[in-house]
Amino acid sequence: MAQVSIVMGSDSDMAVMSQAADVLDKLGVTYEMRILSAHRQTDELVEYLKAAEDRGIKVMIAGAGKAAALPGMCAAIFHLPVIGIPMKTSDLGGVDSLYSIVQMPSGVPVATVAINGAKNAGILAAKILAVSDEKVRAAVEAMADDMKAEVMEKDAKLQKIGHKAYLNA
Length: 169
What we know:
The protein is of the alpha/beta class and 169 residues long.
């Protein structure tokens, strides 16, 4: 049974949204992924959101561009955590999407990551689940340890060969 739902308004968002799925795969978190437009499939979206908790969904990740209505619609109907990903657009570079998602009215919060920040959305979803799931918590901690080791390796290389050689390596 999926614990996280990843929804996007268009298949043009797939390249970014799949990064959240990749993180969840690495952490062993189950998810489902859907393309549901808040503007073009309103009835289907509402039906999906109303049934999400009964399907075992505990956190929702919603990505949207331009008017970015999808994350807000998710938060209005699904009463557990929603993480919004503003998508970079050609029109305004994603700032329009960012403003649409972070300016939710009182009582309908959407946790928001950076423009195209799907990796962080996946990590945040896992951290939310980690509050009550020790297996997910251990996976999140292991990922953090791996990231730390990677940075330490890069610093050791820099210290060994210097910045000019590092840039040319």
